[in-house]
Amino acid sequence: MKIALLVPGPFDQVSGGYIYDRRLAAGLRGLGHDVSVVELPGRHPLPDDAAEAGARAALDALPDDARLVIDGLGLPAFAPLRDALARRRAVGLIHHPTALEPGYADSERDDLKARERLLFPAMARLVATSPLTARRLPGEFGADPARIGVVEPGTDPAPRAPGSGGPGCRIVAVGTLTPRKGHDVLLRALARLTDLDWSLGIAGGGRDRVHANGLRALAEDLGLDGRVEFLGELDGAALEAQYQRADLFALATWWEGYGMAAAEALARGLPVAITAGGAIAEVVPASAGVVSPPGDANTLSRAMRRVIFDTALRAEMAEAAWMAGQRLPRWDDRAAAFVAEIGAAERIEIGVAERTESGAPERTESGAAEGAGSGTPAALGSGGTA
């Protein structure tokens, strides 16, 4: 199969979504598929003129026999091309709807939601990276449930983390220095625990320079500059070294489409302290750590106090984390699962075509006639924002 993966450039960025896309592309090639990666220019996900022009140019340049897979981060730029995507039977790869991303003004969020409500029902298939994201797509974004599938990220077999060896508790947080990752909430939670022996390493690139500088200033204002290290963007062996020397993984995220960093922590037997922002709380079992509400530094601080102080409890959670990590999906079968989702889209299309040729009304597999009361917006901006 000839597959074109369209994603905002550069493709080598270090984030959960880009790691997923790179592993998917490599896995599809390993299965013998002809995969091309098209890096989309411009600003994403809230597209500027360059992004929309780049989307049109990419679509025009791709051959008709290429199966289009568009990363959800770049999908809003294709809103003016909705009908073309429907004709090309494009597949959307949805890590999480961009309208759910924190940090946007209400008008920007409304624009993103209108674009996604316009586009999602037109896609031949939406492949979400978590069941939680999949569950939200019909009610909030008008997607047909029969055209939604899930392919969760994988993990690689990894050695169990031996930890720091003490004294104290070494904490690692992995996530870009953006508001959504909630590093400021984590810093405020830990600032209440200076009577305990701990240190924190934050691994993540500072693409949002204003926010990154603000985090460093916050750590200093809270008197934590001697305990907190900003490690920058790490991958490969450098990131593995941070997992291996850690005693606890922490992430105070506002929203995760899956929670790949937490999954990687579980795969190494690290107990976790997280906030229940999005799907990450479904990845982590209760026995493997502590979970607090998003944005609640007080509750997170109280939860982390016992985990940091009580080494026996931490050991029990580490064992539960290790067992949970061995049950997580593996990368070696993710590409095959994604191909199956593309196949599901083709089966639906064949069924619709057969019904159309027989003169029967087009119906989705969920039983609703196409266009009958679907609420699909006729033009960009007419979609609801509820």
UniProtKB/TrEMBL annotation:
Occurrences of domain Glycosyl transferase family (ranges): 171-321
Entry coiled-coil feature ranges: none
Gene Ontology MF term list: glycosyltransferase activity
Biased composition range(s): Basic and acidic residues: 353-365
Annotated spans, Disordered: 353-386
Highest taxon, organism lineage: Bacteria
Pfam families from the UniProt entry: Glycos_transf_1
Signal sequence segment: none
Biased composition (Low complexity): 366-379
Gene3D superfamilies: Glycogen Phosphorylase B (3.40.50.2000)
InterPro entries per record: Glyco_trans_1 (IPR001296)
TM annotation in the entry: none
The protein, known as: Glycosyltransferase family 4 protein
